[in-house]
Every structure is written in structure tokens, then in C-alpha cells.
Amino acid sequence: MKDIFGNALLDYQNGNYTEDIITSTSISDEDVLSLPYLFRTYSEMPKIEQKALDLCKGSVLDVGCGSGSHSLYLQEKGLKVKALDISKGAIEVCKKRGVLHSEILNVLNETETFDTILLLMNGTGIFQELVQVSKYLSHLKSLLKPHGQILIDSSDIKYMFEDEDGGFWMDANSGYYGELDYFLSYKNKKEAPMKWLYLDFDTLKLASEPVGLSCELVIEGNHFDYLAILTV
Ligand SMILES: C[S@@+](CC[C@H](N)C(=O)[O-])C[C@H]1O[C@@H](n2cnc3c(N)ncnc32)[C@H](O)[C@@H]1O
């Protein structure tokens, strides 16, 4: 990983904001990922993120924290938060913004336990592929304190396969439709392609049960997105 994402966050944090990140996927053309959006305040967040933050309790693990916007809000509310990310640049930004406890770490290597585990901005993305969902969910479950909760958001991207007549053109032979290749570039530098998983709520619920997690829908967002709560 070249950490293009982390470098872009660092540029913004250091006052060197000149352009946004460009993303594309295996099923969609180029799109702009606004750097200021990655530094959003509570009032600028979508309602499913606001709801997730409102539900946080006790000690919180912010998985894939990015610039630490969710961690900072919770910390200011008085909660004990640990922010983690595989991006070195992201964690440097968290520290510069005042997140007290942050670490460069893959969530699969986390060992502490928490009352709340937060995964936001398509939190299922880090699972990468459908076959990996139960591995990640089992691990997240092992990081929960008694009566703990996992708050995770994602989207059902089935709408992206809908044609003008309302029919769907998904290829039944090519795996789960939410498994995408994700491409990111910034200032003419390209990140290595990543796998990124969008999971519809029913599939998340189905994958949660064998792992011993109960999965409930908290709220739906404005665009096929939703927030789920997983408990033991
Ligand atoms: C879409 S960004 C979301 C950032 C932040 N949560 C937000 O809402 O602004 C996903 C983040 O997850 C991080 N990430 C991806 N896989 C991870 C893993 N296995 N463990 C920890 N962080 C991971 C990426 O580096 C990136 O910062």
C-alpha cells in the first residue's frame, strides 16, 4: 500500500489542500471523494453516522478511523476511544487533530476488548469479500466486552445494476454483487487496487447468525444505506 489516502489526509490537515481524491470501481466511473468530507463535523455527517455516534457507550474502538472525525466527536463527549487504521498517514492526522489514543493496526490484530465497536463509511468495506465476512465478524465478536455492541453501516448497491426498465443485469456467475475492485488516485499517483465489500442488510444478518451475533437494523439512510447493530 502506497498510503495515497493517508497522504491526502495529511495534505488537508497541513493546509495543503489543492485537489480531491479520485475513486472508481469495477462497476462505476470516476468519482470525487472530497477531502473536506473526510474531516466532517457531527452536523455535516449523514444521519446514520449521527445515529451510530448517539448509540456509542463505554469504551469505543473506531475501526478504519481515517482522519478521526468520529473518534474526536466521541472523545469530546467524554467517551474513552481508541482509533485504529492501517494507514500511517491517517493515524498521523488523528494524532495531529488531538485523538488521544490511536494506533496503526489492522483490526484483525487488535486484542483489547471494548463496549462499542464502530465501523463507519461503508464499514463492511474492510471485510473485502463475502468469504471473509465470518472471519471478520468472529474476530470483532471476540473484541466485545459483555453486553457490547458493533455498530456498522453499509449500502445495498443492487440499484447500481438496475436498467431503465427496472430490470437487473447482474451476472449470476460472478459472485456476490457487492464485491468490488476499488481504485483510488490523488495528485497523479495511483493506489494499488483494493477489494471493497458493500453488504446488503439481509446478507449481513445471514452471515451474523452462524457467528453467534444477533443483527438488527437500526435505521436506513437516504440512498440504500443502513446502520446495523450486532450484539451477542
Ligand atoms: C472509507 S475509509 C473511512 C474512514 C473513516 N471511518 C470515515 O468515516 O471518514 C476506510 C478506512 O479503513 C481503513 N482500513 C481498511 N482496512 C482496514 C483494516 N483491516 N483495519 C483497519 N483499518 C482499515 C482504511 O485505511 C481507511 O482509512
Characterize the structure shown.
There is one protein chain. With 232 residues, the protein is of the alpha/beta class. It contains six helices and twelve strands. It has helices at 4-13, 47-55, 69-76, 88-97, 133-142, 201-211; strands spanning 21-25, 28-33, 59-63, 80-85, 102-104, 114-119, 144-155, 179-186, 189-190, 194-197, 214-220, 225-231. The strands form two sheets. A seven-stranded mixed beta sheet has the order 5-4-3-6-7-12-11, with helices on both faces. Strands 1, 2, 8, 9 and 10 form a five-stranded antiparallel beta sheet that branches. Helix 5 links the parallel strand 6 (114-119) and strand 7. Helix 1 packs parallel to helix 4 and helix 5 crosses helix 6 (201-211). The longest helix has 11 residues, at 201-211. The chain starts with a helix and ends with a strand. Bound molecules: S-adenosylmethionine. S-adenosylmethionine binds next to strand 4.
